[in-house]
Amino acid sequence: MAKIIVVTSGKGGVGKTTSAAAIATGLALRGNKTVVIDFDVGLRNLDLIMGCERRVVYDLVNVIQGEAGLNQALIRDKRVDNLHILPASQTRDKDALNLEGVEKVLDTLSKDFDYILCDSPAGIERGAQLAMYFADEAIVVTNPEVSSVRDSDRILGLLASKTRRAERGEEAIKEHLLVTRYNPARVDSGDMLNLDDIREILAINLIGLIPESEAVLRASNQGVPVTHDADSDAGQAYTDTVARLIGEEVPLRFHLYEKRSLLSRMFGGGRR
Ligand SMILES: Nc1ncnc2c1ncn2[C@@H]1O[C@H](COP(=O)(O)OP(=O)(O)OP(=O)(O)O)[C@@H](O)[C@H]1O
Ligand SMILES: [Mg+2]
């Protein structure tokens, strides 16, 4: 039986797709058979970030509407053996997904995979609710700004009330906080919320902190999830996050602002 994890946020553009791709890659690199599903019907970003956009023939909507089998739509990642992608459709019909169809797809995948990651669309509407409905765990992606934290709080409300586990009165979805685009210098100068404030407001377990990093842009331009960039801060931060997700204890990195001394500024002591 696979563990179903939704990557969700409320606010748009906070790093859900980046995180879903990076975490799925990390889980697969650790030997877990993993599939990552793009629930963002109409936008279809995951295949670009995973670098498989030219190989998309069938998608989640085709499978749900009976136009293709699951095996026809699943794309095998070209870098990591046990990683698969189920792309979203470019149809403009946001109602193309339905609960029964999604349940069937997840049930079938569940038999074959260890982890199913669901990359949610932004917002608190139907698409986001479908992506989270069957989840066992949720990664709530949050940026260090008030609007993002507020929308994450809304998502926590939905996770606790509008999911299968909530409706059946089962054990609650395990919620994890993933803070992304964290810039310690801007936090230090008061432009952004600091980690402690975010944790205090949302009060859920912190699974990782991803720094604001040029490596993410580079990775998405190349269609290679940033986890593969093992020298980069963001790549290392996602690898740490994956380790915590599978139960390891890893100390937090990249959250402190290192004030540079006058000497190091004068002599340019290289900070990446
Ligand atoms: N750690 C980071 N450092 C720098 N840029 C980042 C980081 N994480 C994400 N980004 C950038 O932020 C933008 C949005 O990222 P992404 O598409 O992953 O967000 P999203 O939450 O999936 O968006 P949407 O709500 O539209 O689905 C992208 O340009 C991405 O490259
Ligand atoms: Mg996205």
UniProtKB/TrEMBL annotation:
Sequence ranges assigned to domain AAA in this UniProt record: 2-150
Signal peptide: none
One Pfam family recorded for the sequence: AAA_31
Gene3D superfamilies: P-loop containing nucleotide triphosphate hydrolases (3.40.50.300)
Keyword Nucleotide-binding tagged: yes
GO biological process: division septum assembly; negative regulation of cell division
GO CC term, one of those recorded: cytosol
Residues given in the record as ATP binding sites: 11-18
GO molecular function: ATP binding; ATP hydrolysis activity
Keyword field contains Protein biosynthesis: no
UniProt family annotation: Belongs to the ParA family. MinD subfamily.
Record key words, sorted: ATP-binding, Cell cycle, Cell division, Nucleotide-binding, Septation
PANTHER family: SEPTUM SITE-DETERMINING PROTEIN MIND HOMOLOG, CHLOROPLASTIC (PTHR43384:SF6), SEPTUM SITE-DETERMINING PROTEIN MIND HOMOLOG, CHLOROPLASTIC-RELATED (PTHR43384)
Biological function: ATPase required for the correct placement of the division site. Cell division inhibitors MinC and MinD act in concert to form an inhibitor capable of blocking formation of the polar Z ring septums. Rapidly oscillates between the poles of the cell to destabilize FtsZ filaments that have formed before they mature into polar Z rings.
Alphabetized CDD domains for the sequence: MinD
Subunit structure: Interacts with MinC and FtsZ.
Name this polypeptide is given: Septum site-determining protein MinD
